[in-house]
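Lab notebook: predicted structure, single chain.

Context: the supervisor wants predicted structures on file for every construct in the current expression panel, including those that have not yet been purified. This is the next one on the list. No modifications to the sequence; it matches the entry in the shared construct table.
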Amino acid sequence: MVHISTGLECIDECLSGGIKPATITLVYGEPETGKSTLMLQLSVNCALQDLKVLYVDCDNTFSTERLYQIAGRNFEAVAERIVLVKPADFREQTALIDRIEDYLVNVGLIIIDTFTSLYSARAAESPKTFSFNRELNRQLAVLAQTVKTKKIPLVMTSQVRSVISEQTSSLRPVATRVLKFWAENILFLKPSDFPQTIKATVEKAPQLVGEAVCYIQIGETGIRDTQLP
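Prediction complete. Output recorded below exactly as produced.
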């Protein structure tokens, strides 16, 4: 199976050609930084290879209208190849992942948007945060084994939380240690100092030494590379 392009030349180059089979990619960032738009853009690019996409919408925010804007004249063909699943709570997410192989016939990409939202909601209701963190780790272990054996890539998004120390404050993914342990590729999206421009930092990729920074813009038809003035 060929790589799946993000549609962003700079990021694809950092990832040695795009999203590779049998890998886990984490995309995290603040709201309105293009995480879900990027997930739809990846879905379109996968569907145009005549492969299905398993799209797990944990936030109940999947937008058919946004998909139409990105897919354009290919909308009907793309929509037919997207298998949309909407777990209502963390228990349903657990059940879905435990039987995820049932959904993977002719699937070329798994999207989970947002992987940590139902976990966060459940953890907020209970003092047993450790047990939910352990379950999240178990789910990722199942997913890692699945993508390796099926040679299918997984791309997941995460919310962020503020981490404040005596010297600095920073944004990190929810359940940072768990997510960063399992992800081969990590992409951090944040608003830049330039108008309507997102700073995309590739923090981790197999062939990458250090970090790489790309600048992108969100438009009506998706996300595109941009050059700084």
